[in-house]
From TrEMBL:
<dbReference type="InterPro" id="IPR036097">
    <property type="entry name" value="HisK_dim/P_sf"/>
</dbReference>
<feature type="transmembrane region" description="Helical">
    <location>
        <begin position="127"/>
        <end position="143"/>
    </location>
</feature>
<keyword id="KW-0175">Coiled coil</keyword>
<feature type="coiled-coil region">
    <location>
        <begin position="142"/>
        <end position="180"/>
    </location>
</feature>
<feature type="domain" description="Histidine kinase">
    <location>
        <begin position="221"/>
        <end position="461"/>
    </location>
</feature>
<dbReference type="InterPro" id="IPR036890">
    <property type="entry name" value="HATPase_C_sf"/>
</dbReference>
<keyword id="KW-0472">Membrane</keyword>
<keyword id="KW-1133">Transmembrane helix</keyword>
<dbReference type="InterPro" id="IPR004358">
    <property type="entry name" value="Sig_transdc_His_kin-like_C"/>
</dbReference>
<dbReference type="InterPro" id="IPR003594">
    <property type="entry name" value="HATPase_dom"/>
</dbReference>
<feature type="transmembrane region" description="Helical">
    <location>
        <begin position="45"/>
        <end position="61"/>
    </location>
</feature>
<dbReference type="Pfam" id="PF02518">
    <property type="entry name" value="HATPase_c"/>
</dbReference>
<feature type="transmembrane region" description="Helical">
    <location>
        <begin position="68"/>
        <end position="87"/>
    </location>
</feature>
<keyword id="KW-0597">Phosphoprotein</keyword>
<keyword id="KW-0812">Transmembrane</keyword>
<dbReference type="InterPro" id="IPR003661">
    <property type="entry name" value="HisK_dim/P_dom"/>
</dbReference>
<protein>
    <recommendedName>
        <fullName>histidine kinase</fullName>
        <ecNumber>2.7.13.3</ecNumber>
    </recommendedName>
</protein>
């Protein structure tokens, strides 16, 4: 290796050191990462200039001084890179300058001890110098690639941060909107709660109105039904009083007729039996009325459905006749004599039968008033055992229910009757009593112009 004695090499080293410092400052972002070292590197041209001045003033050979300056600059650079070891490109450059720094240490040491050794192994040192430079360049390009990758990752992170901030801003806006919407919904909920309370009060009034209407129909039917046995009781009581009068007259006669007295006593006894029979009938009707008006206890009792259906058939019929004396209809009871007692709430099921039968008589009366030739109003009630269930069928030969209406008849407040004649709760309450109260079913089969049949199905056990 040749060494020029010209001290101008030190002047060339100053701008080289300054350029390398500027490049590394920009490449490693030293103003942000190591601001103190960045300020130091700005004056990296100073040592070469000081050494140049010293060499000119003292006449010292500049080659050795240049070696020391290079070693000093490389050592400072190594320390700085060690401080930046957390930064991957800095670690790569540190690994890249390591062979060059080692070469510089060996060369400077030999130059200091014995410069002739450098001349002896000049080719080897040239090869090592070239390898060190090639190694440094290779790792510099690797570091640059790493920096680009890190910049891409940094950009990606920044984009993610921006997206995150946008999402947070959107979330904050959404939370604000949700809060506003929640406040609005809370206000609406309060308004709806008030409306619901008012609706429930109105519904309770309508249910009570429906119950009163049902009770009115029942009362009218009972009044007409009980009138018959009372008439018999009154008539037989009058006849019995006359028989007693005749018997008393016969006893005061001088010549009594024992045969006539026995005949009068026999008639009197028969009349008293008739009075007892019809009085019992009136008493049973009164008991039925009391059971119907009594609040349900919730306990089911075995009930004769044949008797219950027959009683409410006649009560519903006489209830309509109380409103229209000219109305007459044919009643067709068809009861299964082998029907077992069924555990039911008799008063609740009675309300169902009264409602269905009242609707049946209303339907046949409406068709009769249309003046259909040869029409005979008929209402039929039948019972039968079907497997583990008992069926009660209520059929009429009225005008029937249109298909469009049939799907709505069990809905609350739906009615086909004119205003003032129905609340639309009768069939809805009946449906609830049968399905929810007794675990049964209530279905309807109707054809326009032919009639309607409601079927109540109840489990025997």
């Amino acid at each position: 290796m040749s060494h020029s004695p010209n001290n101008s090499e030190l002047l060339v080293l100053a701008p080289m050191a300054y350029g390398m410092a500027k490049g590394l400052s920009r490449f490693l972002d030293l103003p942000n990462r190591l601001p103190a070292w960045d300020r130091v590197l700005r004056f990296s041209w100073v040592p070469p200039m000081l050494v140049f001045g010293l060499a000119q003033f003292t006449g010292i050979h500049s080659t050795l001084l240049k070696q020391y300056v290079w070693l000093l600059l490389l050592s400072l650079l190594g320390v700085m890179l060690l401080l930046l070891s957390y930064y991957r490109p800095a670690r790569t450059i540190l690994l890249g300058i390591a062979p060059f720094w080692l070469y510089q240490v060996v060369e400077t040491g030999l130059e200091t001890i014995d410069s002739s050794l450098l001349k002896t192994y000049d080719d080897g040192f040239d090869t090592a110098h070239g390898f060190a430079l090639l190694w440094l360049l290779t790792f510099f390009f690797i570091a640059r690639s790493q920096k680009k990758q890190l910049e891409k990752e940094q950009l990606l992170r920044e984009e993610e941060e921006k997206a995150k901030r946008r999402i947070e801003a959107q979330n904050a806006e959404l939370e604000r909107l949700v809060s506003e919407r929640t406040a609005a919904l809370t206000t609406q909920a309060e308004e709806l709660r008030g409306a619901l309370t008012e609706l429930r009060a109105t519904q309770a009034q309508l249910v009570q109105s429906e119950k009163m209407a049902s009770l009115g129909e029942l009362t009218a039917g009972i009044a007409h039904e009980i009138q018959n046995p009372l008439n018999f009781v009154n008539n037989f009581a009058e006849v019995s009083a006359e028989l007693v009068t005749e018997l008393e007259e016969e006893r005061v006669r001088p010549e009594r007729d024992p045969g006539l007295e026995d005949e009068l006593l026999a008639d009197l006894k028969q009349n008293l039996l008739k009075i007892t029979q019809h009085g019992g009938r009136a008493a049973s009707i009164v008991r039925g009325m009391l059971e119907h008006s009594r609040t349900s206890s919730g306990e089911r009792t075995p009930t004769d459905l044949n008797q219950l259906a027959d009683e409410y058939l006649r009560l519903a019929y006489h209830g309509l006749r109380a409103k229209d004396k000219t109305f007459n209809a044919t009643l067709e009871p068809d009861f299964d004599p082998a029907l077992p007692p069924v555990p039911v709430l008799a008063q609740d099921l009675g309300r169902v039968l009264l409602n269905l039968l009242s609707n049946a008589f209303y339907a046949v009366r409406q068709r009769q008033q249309k003046g259909v030739a040869g029409y005979a109003p008929t209402v039929r009630v039948s019972t039968r055992r079907v497997g583990d269930d008992v069926e009660i069928r209520v059929r009429d030969n009225g005008s029937g229910i249109p298909e469009s209406v049939k799907q709505k008849i069990f809905q609350p407040f739906f009615t086909t009757k004119p205003t003032g004649e129905g609340t639309g709760l009768g069939l809805s309450l009946s449906y609830d009593i049968v399905t929810q109260g007794h675990g049964g079913t209530l279905t309807v089969d109707s054809h326009e112009g032919q009639g309607t049949e409601f079927v109540i199905s109840l489990p025997v056990s």
